[in-house]
Write a structure and sequence with these properties.
By secondary structure, the protein is an alpha+beta fold. 29% of the residues lie in helices and 35% in strands. It has one domain: Bifunctional nuclease domain (Roll), CATH 3.10.690. β2 and β3 form a beta hairpin. The relative contact order is 0.21.
């Protein structure tokens, strides 16, 4: 069965006020919905440095992966957050080369960091959007101060997968 993909943009990064864990915010391009995914500090740093255009004197891990793919004649074509299983988001990185298409299992944070470096689109499946707690943009979350107020009032159960789960990423 073919999954419906929704193109997303990295809206930004923020910190969970209760745990100080980084959260990447993915906004659907058709608007209206934001999917927060808790990620690791190193992955948040990798995403932030690419979003801010910071160059490092030596290649970081995601730069190395992009460079390796290019050296082997492959192109990162997309990253897809495609599953929410046992309270954890899963993603797939799609590569294309002369040999065809290859799909690699990945953590969403790594898939996002690699896609940003490769200039590849990022998608979330309809199934993930339906099962995870997404934030409706009409909840007044357009400005950073509004995000902070929203984060201050959320509870851990607010992000439980419909049917049970926290929706955390690895």
């Amino acid at each position: 069965m073919e999954q419906e993909f929704h193109k997303v943009t990295v809206r930004g990064l923020t910190l969970d006020p209760a745990t100080n864990a980084p959260i990447v915010l993915l906004r659907t391009d058709e608007g209206g919905r934001v999917l927060p995914i808790w990620i690791g500090l190193f992955e948040a740093n990798a995403i932030a440095t690419e979003m801010e255009g910071v160059t490092t004197p030596r290649p970081m891990t995601h730069d190395l992966l992009r460079n390796l793919a290019q050296a082997l004649g492959a192109e990162v074509t997309q990253a897809v957050v495609d599953e929410l299983r046992e309270n954890t988001f899963h993603a797939t990185v799609y590569l294309r080369s002369d040999g065809g298409e290859c799909r690699l299992d990945a953590r969403p944070s790594d898939a996002i960091a690699l896609a940003l470096r490769a200039g590849a689109p990022i998608f979330v499946t309809q199934d993930v959007l339906a099962r995870a707690r997404v934030v409706e943009v009409d909840e007044g979350l357009g400005e950073p101060s509004q995000w902070r107020a929203w984060l201050d009032r959320i509870q851990p159960g607010d992000f439980e997968e419909r049917g049970g789960g926290t929706g955390r990423a690895g």
